[in-house]
Every structure is written in C-alpha cells, then in structure tokens.
Amino acid sequence: MSSDFEGYEQDFAVLTAEITSKISRVPRLPPDDKKQMVANVEKQLEEARELLEQMDLEVREVPPQSRGMYSSRMRSYKQEMGKLEADFKRSRIAYSDEVRNELLGDDGNSSENQRAHLLDNTERLERSSRRLEAGYQIAVETEQIGQEMLENLSHDREKIQRARDRLRETDANLGKSSRILTGMLRRVIQNRILLVILGIIVVISILTAITFFVKGH
C-alpha cells in the first residue's frame, strides 16, 4: 500500500507545481490565451482531485494503528488543494494590464466615479474570495473531524464485538457447566435412592432372620 500512496504523492506534487505556475500566469495573459490556460488549469485541478481521492482510498486500507501518519499527510494535501483552488478563483477574476487599461482608459478620460466603482468591485470580489476560502477551510476541518469520529466509532465497534464474542463464549461455558452439575446432582440422587433401598432390604432381612430364629426356639 505504501508504495502506491507514495506514487500518488509524487504525481500530486508534480501536478500541483504545474498548476501553481500556470495560475500565476493567468492574469497577465491576453483574453484568448487566458481562456485556454483557464481550461487547462481546470482539467489539471480535476486530475489533482482524483489523485486525492485515490490517496484517501489507500489511507482507509491502512491498519488503524498506522493510519495517523497518513491521515496527517492527507490533511496537508487537502489544505494545499484548497489553497490552489482559491488562488485559481482569484486569478480568473484578476484584471490583466490590457483589460485595466481598456476599462480605465490610457488617455485619462475615464471619470473618477468609474475608477471608484471598479475598485469597489475588485474589493468585493476579494472579500468574496476570502469568505469562500474560509468556508472551504471550515468544510475541510469538518471533514477531518468527521473522519476521526468514524475512526473512533470503528475502534469502539471492534471493542464491542470482541466483548460480545467473549460474552457468548462465557455463556457457552456456563451452559456446559450447568449441564455437568445437573448430571452430577442426578447421579447423587440416584445413589441415595439406591442406598435407601439397600438399607430397607437389609432391615427386612434382619427382621426376617430374627423372626425365624424366635420361632425355632
């Protein structure tokens, strides 16, 4: 398992490095090139998500006593993935120099109101991006907490199952002991009945012998 996980790690590292490089270039590209680059980055982000899913599946196959280290690495990779997605969103809404020049006007004829409106829109987009990033971080942390709870529940379930098995084994042993004691008690009762019968026979024999002896004299 560890070799497969490490292979996915290497692929993820190479892929995220390429994505980071491309994201930094997106805002500076002309519109046509920017559109093509955005499509390319979206495809690579999807590949990175699939790699994370494969890594997550590998971690679930790890024995519970060794899972902590891999879970910690997975949390780091998911955080890195969240940061990449947030950076990509910001890069898509960032204005290139050409677009800014076109909107603001190189000839200085753009009004102050247009500039203020554009700056206000940019600030609102940045605030929205920060809220999205914070929301994603909360979702990641919630997922991590849920995964840890599931692991704890799995451990508790194993303990309960072992306790149940021991209880069943104890019940079986008690049943066997009860049957043995019942058999012993039955034999004791039978032996006592035989002793009583033998005692009665002995008494009758003695009384009969005494009777014959008396009559003979």
Distance between the termini: 107 Å
> Total strand count, please?
0
The assembly state of the depicted protein chains is single chain
Strand content: under 5%
Topology order in helix (H) and strand (E) letters: HHHHH
Average residue pLDDT: 79
Rg over CA atoms, rounded to whole Å, is: 43 Å
Structural class: mainly alpha
Number of helices: 5
Shape descriptor: rod-shaped
Helix content: over 70%
Query: Uncertain segments of ≥5 residues (pLDDT<50)?
Result: none
- How is the main sheet built? none
Structure keywords:
217 residues, mainly alpha
Note down, in words, how this protein is organized.
- By secondary structure, the chain is mainly alpha-helical.
- 89% of the residues lie in helices and 0% in strands.
- It has five helices and no strands.
- The chain has helices spanning 2-25, 31-60, 67-93, 97-104, 112-216.
- Helix 1 runs antiparallel to helix 2 and helix 1 runs parallel beside helix 3.
- The longest helix has 105 residues, at 112-216.
- The chain is rod-shaped, with a radius of gyration of 43 Å.
- The N and C termini lie far apart (107 Å).
How do the strands and helices of this protein lay out in sequence?
Elements: H1 2-25, H2 31-60, H3 67-93, H4 97-104, H5 112-216
